[in-house]
Records
---
Amino acid sequence: MAAALMRLAVAVTCALMLASASQGLEVGYYKKTCPRVEHIVRAEVKKFVYKNAGIGAGLIRLLFHDCFVQGCDGSVLLDPTPANPQPEKLSPPNFPSLRGFEVIDAAKDAVEKACPGTVSCADIVAFAARDAAYFLSRFYLKIDMPAGRLDGRVSNASEALDNLPPPFFNVTELVDTFAAKGLDTEDMVVLSGAHTVGRAHCSSFVPDRLAGPSDIDAGFASALRRRCPADPAPGNDPTVNQDLVTPNAFDNQYYKDVLAHKVLFTSDAALLTAPETAKMVRDNAYIPGWWEDKFKAAFVKMSRVEVKTGKQGEIRKNCRVVNHGHPHGHY
Ligand code: HEM
Ligand SMILES: *[C@@H]1O[C@H](CO)[C@@H](O)[C@H](O)[C@H]1NC(C)=O
Ligand SMILES: *[C@@H]1O[C@H](CO)[C@@H](O)[C@H](O)[C@H]1NC(C)=O
C-alpha cells in the first residue's frame, strides 16, 4: 500500500515536471548539460561584432526573422536542398539582406566541441542576438535569455513572405502582424527601436518614401537620393545606415529620428500616425532608461514565440541542415 502510494506520488511528480518543462523556457537551461554555452556563444559574437558592428545588427534581426516564421526554431538557418529548394532564407525579406549566419555556424562549432548534440541552433540564435545587443549597447542591455527551444524541420520561403512585415506597412497592419505572434502594440513599438543600428538597402525604402509624397525630412531625403539610384534593382542596390546620428549604438536614438522624420521606412514613420503609438515613441525618446527596460522584456517575449518542445523538434547537428533520419518515426 505504502509502496503503491509512493509509486503514484513519483508518477504524479514526474508528470508535473514534464508538463512544466514543456510549457516554457528557462534561464540557465544548459547549466548542467553545457555550463559554458553562453560564455562560448558570447566569445564568438564578440569576435565578429568587434570586426564589423553591422554583423551585430544582423544577429538582432536574425532572431526576429526566425521567431516570426514557424516560431523561434532555427528554421531561418536552413540551406536549400534538392528536396526543399526554397527555404525561408531565400525569400525576399531575407535574401540577400539577412546576415550573421557565419556567426551562428562558428558558435555552433565551438559549442559542439564542448557539448556535442546538446544545444539547439534556435537557442544559439537567441543567445547571439542577446549578446549583439549587449555589445552594441556598450554593455548596457543585460538580458537573461531563457533557453530550451528545439530546432524545427520545416522552412518554407512563402511562410516568410506571409509572416514578416514589409517596410511599407501602416500602423494597423504592423499591430496586426505582431498580434498574430502574441505581441502587443507596445512590444511592436519597442522592438522597432532595433532600427537604431544596421543598414537598409535602397530598394527597401526608395519606392514608397522617395518616389512619391511622404512625411520624410527634406534634407534627409536629399541625402538619401544622393546615395540611392531612383530605381534600385539587384546589382544596383546600395545600403545606407538606419540611424545617422549613432549608427552602431544600440540606444533610443531611433525614437528621436522618428520624431524628426528622419527614418527610412513607412513602417517607422507610421508609429506617429496613431495617438497611442505616437505617445510610446515620445516616452521612448524622452524618458531616460524607459526604452532600454521595455526592450529587454519585449525581446525575451519575442524569443518565446511559438517555441517547439518535445517531439516537435530536434537538436540539429549542423545549423544549416535538418538531422538525417526521422527521429520520431512518423514522417
Ligand atoms: C516593425 C516591423 C519591421 C519592419 C517592417 C522591418 C523592416 C526592415 C527592413 C526592410 C530592413 C532593411 C533590410 C535591408 O534592406 O537590408 C530592416 C533592417 C533591420 N531590422 Fe527590421 N523591421 C521591423 C521590425 C524589426 C524588429 C522587431 C527587429 C528586431 C528586434 C528588427 C531589427 C532590424 C535590424 C537590426 C535591421 C538592420 C539589419 C542589418 O543591418 O543587417 N526589425 N528591417
Ligand atoms: C510552402 O508553403 C506554401 C504555402 O503555404 C505551400 O503552397 C507550399 O507547398 C509549401 N512548400 C513546401 C515545399 O512545403
Ligand atoms: C492600413 O492599410 C490597410 C490595408 O491597405 C487599410 O485597410 C487600413 O485602413 C490602413 N490603415 C491606416 C491607419 O492607414
Note: Residues 10-22 have pLDDT under 50 and may be disordered.
---
Amino acid sequence: MSKTYAPLNPPRRLLYGPGPTMVDPRVYQAMTKTVVSHLDPYFFEVVEDCREMLRTAFGTTNEFTLAMSGTGSAGMQTAVANFVEPGSKFVVLANGFFCDRISEMGRRQGANVVRLEKAWGEAFDEAEAAAFIRAERPSVVGFVQAETSTGVFQTSKAICAAAHEVGALVIADCVTSLGTMPVELDANGIDIAYSCTQKGLSCPPGLAPVTVSPKAMEWLRNRKTTPADWYLDLKLLADYYEGARRYHHTAPISLFYALREGLLCIHEEGIEQRWARHKAAHEAFVAGIEAMGMEMHVKAGQRLTSLNTPRVPEGIEDLKVRKRLLAATDMEILGGFGPLAGKVFRVGIMGPLATEENVIALVAGLETALREEGFAAKGSGVEAAKAAYAAVVA
Ligand SMILES: *Cc1c(COP(=O)(O)O)cnc(C)c1O
C-alpha cells in the first residue's frame, strides 16, 4: 500500500502579525484564474495595470515601476545589486533588523558600508542623519521607512535632500508602509523603493514591487560594471516588462493576478480612505493598550499605523500570552526579536483586519490572555478602543 496523505487543510488563522497578513478573499478568487503564458499580451495587460496602481500606492510618477519575482528581500536585493556598486560607499541608517539585512547585502556586494546607529524603537532626527550624510559623502544612502522589527516610521525629506546634495541615490525600504500609510516617494525625494505583497497589500507572499526614479534609471544605464545578480538585473528586466518584451524568466502569473486584485481592492476603496482606515484601527488599538495600563515602545508621532509594538508588561512572559491568544481565538500576534526579544509584542493590523469589529475582538482577546497570565489591567481596553472609534465617527 502506498502512503496516503490527508487533503490540504490549513488552519484558519487571524493574521495579526507583521506578515504575512490576511489575504483578501477576492485575491484568493483571482488566483484560481487560468494561467496564460508569460509572453501573452493578456499577461502584459495585467502587468501594466499593476504598474499603474503601484505608482499610486508609492506616491510616484516613476515610469520604471514593476514587481520583482520573489519576496520583499528580493526587492531589497534588487535595490542593492543594481545601485550599490562594489567599492562604493553605502551609508545605512541603522535602527532595526531590516537595516541590518540591507547592510549585510551591501557588504556582500563589496560596498564600504558605513552605518549611523540608533536604538531599536527610535527614529532618526533628520537633521542628524543629514549631517552624517554630508560628512560621509556616500554614493548611496539606505534607510527603512517602516521598520517592522520595531514599529518605527522614518520621515525622510531632509535625508533625501542631503543625499542629493552630495550626489547620492536614496534607497528606501517601504515593505510595511506600502498600502497602509503614505509613502510619498516623490514628495520625499526617494530614488529607489521596494516592498512586498504580503504585508500592506493583502496578497500572499511572492512578489516584490520596486520603483526607480528617472534619475536613478539614467545612473543605472550609465553604470559601467555589470550587477553580479543576473536574475535581479533591472536592465535585463526592462527588456522584458517594457519595450522589447523579451523573455527573461517565467513570471509567476498567478501571483500577478493576485497583486492586480489586491491593488484593485485598494483602488476601489481609495488609497487615502485606506490609510485613514489603518490609522483609525491603530489609534483605537493604542487607546486600548494604554487604558489597560500598558505602554507603546515607540514614541507617539513616530509610530507605524500598520504595525504596533506594545511593551510586554513587567513579569509577564510574551510567548505564554501569544499561545493563549492563539488557542482561544485563532489570533496570531508575534513577539520581538534581537534587542526587543521578550520586551514587545508585534501586532499588525492590516488590510481586512483594520476594522472596528476586528480591532475590538483583538483587544478583547489580548486583554483576556493577559489577565489569565496574571496581568492586572488598570482599565478596560475594549471600552477605550470603542470610545476611540466613536470619536473618529463623531
Ligand atoms: C518583511 C520585511 C522584509 C523582507 O521581506 P520578505 O518578504 O520576508 O523577504 C524587508 N524589510 C522589511 C521592513 C520587512 O518588514
Note: Residues 19, 71-73, 76, 98, 144, 146-148, 173, 175-176, 196, 205 surround pyridoxal-5'-phosphate (CB under 6 Å).
